[in-house]
Amino acid sequence: MKFEIACRTLGSMDISRRVASLKPSVTIAFMNRAKTMKAAGKDVLSFAAGEPDFDTPQPIKDAAIKAMQAGQTKYMPTFGDPETRSVLAKKLREENCIPGLTGDDITISSGGKHSLFNLCQCLFDDVKPGEQPMEAVIPVPAWVSYAPLVELAGGKVVEVPTTVETGFKASAAQIKAAITPRTRLLILNSPSNPCGTMYSPDELKAIGRVCAEAAASIAPNLIILSDELYEKITYGGIPHFSIGSMPEVAERTITMNGLSKAYGMTGWRIGYTGMPGAFGRKFTQAMSAYQGQQTTNLPAFLYPAIRTAILECGPQVEVMRQAFAKRAELINRLLGTLPGVTTARATGAFYAFPNVSAHFGKTSKGGRVIKSAMDMSEALLEENLVAFVPGEDFGGCGGQHVRISFACSEKQIEAGIGRFGEFLNGLR
Ligand code: PLP
């Protein structure tokens, strides 16, 4: 009897405040709704998932299978074998021109998101009573996970607003104005999720110079995080540039990358960082200590697969890049024909992020009043069976936008944007 009473009260216990306050991902919510509707037999066209529709190249799979069959199934050092770390360091040195990196400056985690979680834990502290939190400066709209991961680590987000008119890029002057003595992190993401746009090398160099000046004066603790997950998916004529290659900020920059997007490997969960210099070594050791009490290493048989991807799969990546380039051209053209839709031309990643706010205040054919991107995405999914992601959770002007992931066939893009056009033309 006592036992039953004790069990009944279990339901009223609380989950930690830290976790209870986390918002569920709107991207996953729309992706799952589209999947459920599809499973129920509805002809839904989904543009919600931030995931390439290409399978992992066969040589990468073969490398993992071979390693597993050869018995590479045991614990490993936290960041894997020295050979894999050296391959990643060489990639960052030679392709991204980041000076001075060795294998000892590389961390390898279970996906870019895991790298980001861990690095925020290593850079931010819980705030003691009476203390101000350290800050992360983030140009917005930005990937939905940055803010929660910064906040979970005790940091405070400082948003730098951007607009569709400037290609969603923050200027060096805006970044300068946002940096304070409490700035710990500046997060840059080019090519961008959700915006699909890229900073030019000159724009990044101007931001790098501003950061170097601020670090030498008011913000000595400033670190730049350059999230380069979409580095390989570029097609708009803007070359990818790693801000960590600038001597002024090289030793203040964590370059983060992963295999999810470029190699069709979202489910493998592989992310890595590189940071040269004295603080970089300290940072890498901290990441090792933290991950060592957490997930330890990646599954052992993934390390040969990482080497195969980086060293041998350039041609397969190029085939995917060319497909994304054709899709981008198509979607840029089709969105340009829609009434009341303003778009920045997609030049990288696989997203379009049009401003649809000219339609707010209207009513859909099905009688739904459209007051927000969320309302529009709901109505579009229910009435025209097209799943976009509403932009509210990406921050800044995101609430006026919808995100369209074009990691799907050209046929689906034509059909989906066609339905979107019908939906917009039906608004009254
Ligand atoms: N950074 C950006 C900008 C992303 O869009 C994503 C995934 O959507 C990630 C990082 C994390 O990717 P993963 O954890 O699959 O490596």
Fill in the keyword field for this structure.
single chain, 428 residues, alpha/beta, Aspartate Aminotransferase, domain 1, Aspartate Aminotransferase, domain 2, 3-stranded antiparallel sheet, 14 helices, binds pyridoxal-5'-phosphate
Can you tell me about this structure?
This protein has 428 residues and is an alpha/beta fold. The chain has two domains: 2-55 and 315-425, Alpha-Beta Complex (Aspartate Aminotransferase, domain 1); 75-312, Type I PLP-dependent aspartate aminotransferase-like (Major domain) (Aspartate Aminotransferase, domain 2), CATH 3.40.640. The protein has 14 helices and twelve strands. The chain has helices at residues 2-8, 17-20, 26-39, 58-69, 82-94, 112-123, 146-152, 172-178, 201-216, 277-292, 302-312, 314-336, 373-384, 410-425; strands at 45-46, 106-109, 135-140, 156-161, 183-189, 223-227, 253-258, 271-274, 351-352, 386-387, 389-390, 402-405. The strands form three sheets. A seven-stranded mixed sheet has the order 2-8-7-6-5-3-4, with helices on both faces. Strand 5 (183-189), helix 9 (201-216) and strand 6 form a beta-alpha-beta unit. Helix 6 crosses helix 10 (277-292) and helix 8 runs parallel beside helix 9 (201-216). It is globular, with a radius of gyration of 22 Å. The N and C termini lie far apart (63 Å). The relative contact order is 0.16. The structure holds pyridoxal-5'-phosphate.
